[in-house]
What does this fold into?
Amino acid sequence: MAHKHDDPKDPSSPNLPDPFPKPERATPSPILLDGSPRAGVIAAVKRTAITLGVIVLVATCLLASAWHSVFHYVGPKKILIVKTKTGDDMPPGQLLAKPGQKGIQEEVLGEGRHFILPIVNEVEEAAAVEIGAHEVGIVTANIGKELPPGKLLADPGERGVQRQVLAPGRYRLNPHGYKVQKAPATIIRPGYVGFVTALVGRDRPQDSVLALEGEKGPRKDVLSPGIYYLNPRELKVEEVEVGINQVSFLEQHRLSFPSADAFPITLEATVEWELHPSAVPLVMKEFGARSAVEEKIIQPESKSIGRLAGSRYAAGQRRRGFPHPGKSLDRSSASRETEQCSGDSRSGHC
It folds into this structure.
């Protein structure tokens, strides 16, 4: 039986290897995160980015820390106190260090950014001293020379309560060397003057009634209306009203006196009197207060003048006012006191 050769083109022929095989087309593989080559590249990129981010973050923190440890920023209303660890030792008794000495530096740094080596220095931030518009600052220095015996207020360079006060403003004072106490400024209102008493100074001569500049006691000059930045430890100021004042005699305080024909007369009255600014020191030294002037001079003298002048007229006789005591009355003891106040008993001033 003859064998029939298999035809490769015959579909009924058994499967035989194709002598001319066709190349198969590669099927694209999907992007998977399961260890394929592309997923590995993405993971490596992510790891590199994270590593670089951590490095940059750490470097930034280290740079910022180094920057702030070397460059110190002092904000508004603040000061920076520096303590130096190197330098010469301070002499015994010296509290704050000068440049080149070891210790807390007397000079402080103000607002801004300052370069300070952290290895040889330590810093401390504190608030600046602020004095308000109607305030003064009383400074007590913990540094400087000791005060001479008997001296109460210190001058610059001396230790103790300073004579000079701080006016309104902002000051850079080292709190380790200076203490500041705030006090109200001296305000003299219109219609008033300031009666000044010096609390410190040399003793005035015995024959002197009022103190001069540098002497202790009530001073001759008064303060006009205004604002004054004075040391209350050095000067005491009392506000005294000047100008025209009135004292009224009403109800149970009315003036009573007999008339020329022996009838009892009772009337209401108002007395005007003036305290001259130049007479304030003498009046305050003698009487201590304006109210005492009314009580010891004005009221008794007004009643006395009313009795003496009113008793010259008969009952029913009208009279508008009384004559001026300087013109119609002799000088009494009270008028002599008034003369001591103003220097002229006829001026009507006390």
